[in-house]
Write a structure and sequence with these properties.
With 400 residues, this protein is an alpha/beta fold. The protein contains 11 helices and 18 strands. The chain is elongated, with a radius of gyration of 29 Å.
Length: 400
Amino acid sequence: MGFKITECEDVTPPVNVLDPTKDRFIEDIGMMYSDAIKQGLLQHPSDIKADRLKEYALLAAKHLIPQGIDIPPPEIVFEIGGIPMLTKKSISLLIAKAKAGKTTVAAWIIAQAIQVGIRVLWVDTEQGLYYGSRTQSWILSIAGLQTSENLSFYDLKIHPPDIRIHIIESLMQTGQYDLIVIDGVRDLVFDINSPEEATHTATNLMRWAEVFNCHILTILHQNKGNDHARGHLGSEMVNKAETVIKVGQNDLKEIVVEPEFTRGKPFDVFALNRDENGTPYMVENWSSSNEEGTPIRRKLDLPTEVPSVLHHSVLTKVFKNDEELKSTDFLNSFMAAWSTVSYEPKKDPMNLSRAKVFHSFYVQEGYITQLKGQKGNMTLNKLADKVELVSEEQLVNQLF
């Protein structure tokens, strides 16, 4: 195998390279440069250039988009209202003013994702161990879980941007994640207004998403003076993102989530609110304004506003045939049981997101206890002893 000149970054051949006046002695192989080329021990710069062109041509061929073939749509990582929001092999950006609810929205999304088996890597760059642990516990609480193998949460606050990048890539290489959250992406660069760093970072994120077959959701502040994402990095991320999610608050202190930009069909604007324990939940039947343009929403009963006898009645139905239920089975049984009770507010929609709010309430208030299943990642729900079994007839008598 011959040697190559690694020092020649300029692949333009030297002028009359075989001219003895331009020749030089190569100590490593003990002969003149021109003789080494003649004997095939070194490669002429013009040959190096040709080889590089061949390599680029082969690389380009791998990226040719074929014609006459239906390319399958990307795998959905998270959707809202049946509309894909985050898909694999893409990156997205979540933007908001300071303290407007960025982490709340991201935590709510991740809580929904890990419950359906999506493996998530969350990288925090600014909170530190204590506040990062609070965010992780919050996510698990929203999901109604004590622990989850689907969530890996890392605190990289103390490291500089270049080291953070290496750590993140090593985590992606050793783990099989469907969704990566980087809170915040600003801390992957030294200068947020550097065009070179912005382009390099956005390109690197797109490469990760493609190579590791995942979606990368990044979080970034908006400018103080306008609604644009901060710096050159923000502009570059907006240009490259599959979805740009804008987060803000209305006069009712609800956290409003809207699609700023999307490559596909935009999801419907929705809002999150917090219950008495600070746990976020989706506001049902939410509207941004009425005909006069005034913010409105139709308030549905929170778990604390529902008569306790109704809770007992619904839970009696849920656990009628099973002493222990997985969380997904509990939620399905709860929605079915709720639709059958004789209570007027039951006409309000009890969908999955609202059922999760009730589930979290039951765990926190001791209506149900959670046990570790035989499989390490499985959490089982069991009716607590404090819950009185209530028949439909008893329910009607006490309510009416």
